[in-house]
Amino acid sequence: MSTPTTFSMPLGPVHVALEEPVYFHLTVDGETIRKVELTSGHVHRGMEALASQRNLIQNTTLTERVCSLCSNSHSFTYCMAVENVLGIVIPPRARYLRVMAEEIKRVASHLFNTAIQAHIIGYKSLFMHVMEVREMMQDVKETVYGNRMNLASNCIGGVKCDVEARHFDYIQSMLDKVAPAVDEIRDIYDHDPMILGRTRGLGLLPQADAVRLGVVGPVARGSGITHDARKDSPYAAYPELDFRVISRDGCCVNTRALVRLDEIFESIGLIRQCCENSPDGPVTAPMNRIHPAEACARSEAPRGEVFYYIRTNDTDMPARLKWRVPSYMNWEALGVMMRDCTVADVALITNSIDPCVSCTER
Predict the structure, then answer these.
(1) Taking every annotated instance into account, which residue ranges of this chain make up the domain NADH-quinone oxidoreductase subunit D (predicted)?
(2) pTM score, whole prediction
């Protein structure tokens, strides 16, 4: 009598190879995955309910704590939603400073995901090297904004603090060091046989499936979809700046990593343009009268499109504040990516969507 080889395998929510608490119910045939069921909700924090108990200004701080790596994107998009609902037009200089902060965060976020991929593969020297390069961007954040993660730069009506000319010079000098280092890292991810053997052709997400599932960010652009909110729905200073939407057609783990590394150079170009072309003038606009209305805003966070909706009443506390994060859509794609891969590939494929449990389970 033959022994069946297909069985169910639980993975998570606490697992040594998974950075955050997610539960995968795997149906495996030997070591090969045939079906994936995802269960989340282990760290729900009720942040949308908390937002209804705080005023509009306090929620700037709250939304920046939805996620660490995308923290600036949340306060950025929230402030835009409030400005839209109140009819506030922010000063030109503030628009440039917002873009600069956002792109600095994007570079650091993409480098972090790239480093974690090397860590999961077991390429420890590459992991430490990428984190060392990322540390230069952390130094930029700490020097210019005083913080290494939450920049606390955005406020309703613009930005909290101006950036001095000497800081622009400092940022430019640090980018001169970061750019060649990232170019070296990109060459490793594009040609190193150890990286390619572990990532090329793994975790395939065909473009048709990417469209059907509505994935966003580098996950979508790694499957050949040229969607980027900075181009498709321009905001802040992006309409006045020159940059490309990066996409590749490989549809695999390696392609998604290369999209992020390519995007770093576009971000560096955007930061340089902000340093050189930021107009003079004020950095905040006054608040307008609060009245019952509703509005929304969207932006392109490092992981993909962030969407905020706000409804106000006659008080300074929102009647409703809701946001949709990129990981919410990208999680579902793991069912396609993991099919016919091995159990040992789960952590690597999961990291390729750059998941964030904290913002998904807000």
Answers:
(1) 121-291, 292-362
(2) 0.94
